[in-house]
Design a protein that fits this description.
This protein has eleven helices and 18 strands. It has three domains: 128 residues, no CATH class; 95 residues, Phosphorylase Kinase, domain 1, CATH 3.30.200; 210 residues, Transferase(Phosphotransferase) domain 1 (Transferase(Phosphotransferase), domain 1, Orthogonal Bundle). The protein is of the alpha+beta class. Belongs to the protein kinase superfamily.
């Protein structure tokens, strides 16, 4: 493929795109550069209705309007890398290059006079669905007995979930959960494909495993490993479900979620991280051994790794009562936004109540308000679940609540990293276990 001619019109040698080739139309590489004034500029690029990931420097970066942003296919993610030493007139020398059969690696071509990049500019990570995970619709119908109501296990704004027994390929009589998305519901095609890509590419013992998916005849179906004990929120202040969960079980579940988030924030790949964007107790599933499985990646975003202040400019998403207040105000999503949401989950576990109770009209309505009021007064113990209070050691309670409260700082800079949280939760666990042993032998 010939290089783009980076002249004023930018498109003098633009490759021809066959309109019949859908893949060429939906899979592209965008180059986005940033000037020394920390303002992102775009030139001669299509308009945008999608989120853009960029690196936050010492000064804030701003978009003048959404009309300045490039349009991204809903089948794509953005990965951003810093570009240095660009002047404002050089910033206009930017181009879009579709993938072609002659250029399968989707390399970015620059003219010889284009300034050298310290790191590759913004790369588009094409969201191709892994073919080996695709399950025919007739197999899923057989698996769920044609979505029989006897196999129905739950529903939400996204659609309905069924239990099934999958017999297909290497899966012999495997128990699975089948989520059939409602095409008119909250979770659409973009979220569906995001989740397929995320869960097929990034795997961890505390992240729900994707068995397969189906998009035949405009269906949007996700097939997961079956988490037999359901979601964590069902056990908060509910002693009717298996007699409730003990403090050791709850503590280990929290450690498992922290481990999953640490993997997403720090270990998925060398040059990027995943921001989940919807951490809540309802998205923590529990397997037969009560191991935590973080789920629901339809809202997740990819950000730049190895940068302390990575953030994503995005439309507000998440769940009422869990959302980072700075994200609500600014639209800037960061890994610390996940930390805030996880802090709410930690206090849900400790206090045995949901993040939001609409029946209250005072400070009790939102858990984070209720916690702040009592924590500042030194009266947090008053709102700890009475069953947990009987089981948890006071020293464990002190360390657990301290790290949870740090997560709820209103300013992101004051919040701990998820790696620090995982470490402190582990220390709190060791305190609980060691003191229990001393009690047994005393």
């Amino acid at each position: 493929m010939s290089d783009y001619n980076f002249q004023e019109n930018l498109w003098e040698k633009q490759p021809k795109v066959d309109p019949d080739e859908e893949m060429l139309e939906t899979q592209r590489n965008y180059i986005v550069v940033k000037d020394p004034k920390r303002t992102v500029r775009f030139s001669n690029l299509p308009k945008l209705n999608e989120d853009v990931v960029m690196q936050r420097s010492n000064q804030r970066s701003f978009f003048s309007s959404t009309a300045d942003l490039p349009k991204l296919s809903e089948d794509c993610f953005v990965r951003t890398y810093q570009v240095n030493n660009l002047t404002s007139h050089q910033i206009n020398k930017v181009a879009v290059m579709p993938r072609t059969n002659q250029d399968p690696k989707r390399r970015v071509h620059f003219s010889p006079n284009f300034p050298k990049l310290t790191e590759a500019a913004v790369m588009l990570h094409t969201n191709q669905q892994p073919k080996d995970l695709k399950i025919p619709f007739h197999v899923i119908k057989d698996c769920t007995q044609d979505f029989n109501e006897r196999n129905f296990i739950g529903k939400g704004g996204y659609g309905r979930v069924y239990k099934g027994i999958l017999t297909w390929a290497d899966h012999a009589y495997q128990l699975v959960a089948v989520k059939r998305l409602d095409v008119t519901g909250f979770q659409g095609n973009k979220e569906f494909r995001t989740e397929v890509t995320m869960l097929s590419e990034y795997q961890h013992k505390n992240i729900i495993k994707l068995i397969g998916f189906c998009d035949d005849n405009k269906e949007m179906i996700l097939v997961y490993e079956y988490a037999s004990h359901g979601s964590l929120d069902k056990y908060l202040s509910n002693t009717t479900m298996s007699g409730g969960l003990s403090w050791p079980q709850l503590h280990k579940i929290c450690i498992g979620v922290a481990s999953a988030l640490d993997y997403l924030h720090n270990h998925v790949a060398e040059k990027h991280r995943i921001i989940h964007r919807d951490v809540k107790s309802a998205n923590v599933l529990l397997d037969e051994n009560w191991n935590a499985k973080l789920s629901d990646f339809g809202l997740a975003k990819i950000g730049l790794a190895n940068q302390h202040n990575t953030f994503v400019i995005t439309n507000l998403a998440g769940t009422y009562g869990y959302t980072d207040p700075q994200y609500e105000r600014t639209g800037f999503l960061t890994k610390e936004s996940d930390v805030y949401s996880f802090g709410v989950v930690l206090f849900e576990v400790l206090c045995g109540r949901p993040a939001c109770v609409f029946g209250y009209q005072d400070e009790r309505r939102f858990l984070h308000h209720w916690v702040r009021t009592h924590y500042k007064k030194g009266e947090l113990e008053k709102i700890v679940d009475h069953t947990i209070k009987k089981e948890i050691n006071p020293r464990t309670l002190s360390k657990f609540s301290a790290i949870a409260y740090q997560c709820l700082h209103k300013t992101r800079e004051e919040r701990p990293t998820i790696a620090e949280i995982a470490l402190q939760l582990g220390k709190a666990w060791k305190i609980q276990v060691s003191l229990n042993i001393l009690f047994i032998f005393s």
